Amino acid sequence: MLSRVANLIYWTARYLERAENTVRLIDVNAQLVLDLESHQDFDDPRSWEPLVYVTGEEEKFFEIYEKPVTEEAVVEFLLFDRKNPSSLLSCVASARENARCVRDQISSEMWEVLNTFYLNLKTHNYQTYAKTGSNEYLADLKLRTQQIYAVAESMMPRTESWWFYLLGRYLERADNVSRILDIKYFMILPDRHHVGSALDVIQWGSVLRSCSGFEAFRRTQRGQLKLENVTNYLIRDSEFPRSILAAVTSAENCLAEICKTKSNPIHQSVARELTILREHLASTDVTQVIAQGLHEYLDDIQNRVAIVHRATQEAFINYDPAQATVV
Amino acid sequence: MADFFNNYDLGGFYDEMFSSPGVPRDHYKPLLDRYDAMTGIDEMFSRQKAADDTFINRGVTFTVYSDQAGTEKIFPFDLIPRIIAADEWAQMEKGLTQRMTALDHFLKDIYSDQRIIKEGIIPRELVESCSHFRPELVGVKLPRNRHVHINGTDLIRDADGSYRVLEDNLRTPSGVSYVLENRQIMKRVFPNLLRNYRVRPVSGYTSDLLDLLNWLAPEHVPDPTVVLLTPGVYNSAYYEHAFLARQMGIQIVEGSDLVIEKDKVYMKRTGGLTPVHVIYRRLDDDFLDPKVFRKDSLLGVPGLFEAYRKGNVALTNPIGTGIADDKAVYYYVPQMIKFYLGEEALLPNVETYLTSDETERKFILENLPKLVVKSVNEAGGYGMLIGPHSTKEQIQEFHDKIVANPRNFIAQPTLSFSRCPTICGDEMGGRHIDLRPYVLNGESIKIIPGGLTRVALKKGSLVVNSSQGGGSKDTWVLADNKEIADIREVAEDLSTTVKPEKISV
Questions:
Q1: CB contact residues (below 8 A), chain B span 249-278, against chain A
Q2: Global ipTM
Q3: What domains appear along chain B, each with residue ranges and CATH number?
């Protein structure tokens, strides 16, 4: 397939996955804040500020909004603000723009669902969110993104387009889940001795729920809802589809499908990077990671995902024509 | 006759359907009988709505997409077909074939020996001052020695009913997708109207086009790769580009998808480079290659011209055909036909005056309120003065423009194009129409039966362009005149029609 088209599909998937995870991120925070109410006020700036840092867009945020950080500002920024390139609306708009160019490849049905979602979403703002209630509103958004995936799943032929679509989705997920996990790091616990307390348990429960992993965790893990167990689950569980390891393993499979028909050694370099990342995740000792710094570890994972992304671009999309094979 | 034609007013124009009030022409009679025979024909107007919805749902749209406005407009489709009798079409076909042949000769000649200039038929200044003349092309040998492959010739019928050529479009004529889509919609909405009417199908066009493109490939390539080059999704005709590529099963590419290595063209694919042999380009010459033409073009492919010059890739249409689009050059087409073919033009031009000619300019300037003035390089109904419909200021403006730049204009008498009954809200009104048949110049000349009938939906308007409030009609070319009597007999069986709600796609 054309490199440009592959790239458009890859980015459509990345934007959609990012859109979904942005919603999940807000969802987990909204739940955490409710649980924290006994310890800090709802409008305590510490309640919403961490989210801004987790998305890595703090500079942009403080250009637009003033301190103290309010729920309204954060929700507006992360969901509806076109000035934030990673906001839900920006992601959905970008996904739609990309999808528009490759309508034939992704099926008209998928484009139509995405288009309707966008047209609807762009009439929303914080008031829509607040009036509906965060829980219900965010649940509906999640459902909407799931609907797009479902249509893609049942409509897209399993050609190279499909594998690039999934590759984009899994790489984005690996990155995003690491950020969701990181939120706990920024969530300043009232006190060190609260670790393992009732509050701590509740918070980890929220993190899991935001990844739709609470029940799955309960079913498969006998352990407690505590830092080591939940972190280990979200990083390394091989069965839970939103764990980082599972996302990377799936990405590896997609790449193998893409490379089936290709002979150029440059394509193998992407596979190599992915394998290194998977092995790194599989061999991670979470207790040790926590002792040395979870945040730094997650940061490193995000960097490694970025390396795989760049290798993908160089192998399939932005390669130098003068060096390329003629097929 | 169906009720809704009761108050139909011919308005003193040549009418496609009626020879005089209440008297239909022969080839329309079965259609009117069928309208009569249908139950629920009063639903005509709601069917019109259903057809519009179908177009919107399918995204058969033309407007430049705008995220801000968030709307895509359709090219309105009118449900009353325009019918062309078999003998009329046979004449038109001959005329179009002759014209295409002469234009091909002309372009070949202009880019080689220039005999037509040397023998004093066309002035050298006129050719060389044409903004679409490409001196870079002189002496370049083209695939199969064809210098133009596709022409969308705009025809009108004047007051006495004879067809005349209004202009040629030899660059990247658009609109053929509407011809194909209109017929599809017609078959859905009124299957029984078409049944046994012996309407010639139009769907062979894309096969003919693909044959032409394959035929143009460098001869040593057994299994050539053909692509369609589009300026991109924001181009107003993008829908058509995607449609044609899909119909022909060829890849649609943008300039950035193509690269040139050692004067050969490749497309950039995920697995590496794939050679490209023929490009059906829907991008104007100016933008094709920033190394040779417009330097600021980001839409083209640097180095494409050199690959073309060396015969490594074929382009459709070839580069430089726009010179024959020029409305001042158009003036000379009948002379070309005589010069190259030794024949009289079968399809006459519309009477035209050149502002570059001193005597004619004098006449034009004195008669501006009666004339239509067109700028020679504009298309889409832009840059025009319609004298009788213009204010004193507008006329003065064109007067000054002509004096300042006489090479840039031509003038024509204000024509009364033929009209055809058209659904206007909830009544039937006469609206002016033209016709654009698409002529393919491959191994042999092939012409789509009929072509695009455009209709000026605004009352009294003569401008049929989609950008200026035009719409379109399905165009029926009948296979054989003799059959018409017979098909009238089946009209009685045609009482069932498809309900609008079944039209969804």
A1: 251, 253-254, 256-257, 259, 261, 266-275
A2: 0.82
A3: 96-164+198-341 (3.40.50.11290), 353-413 (3.30.1490.270)
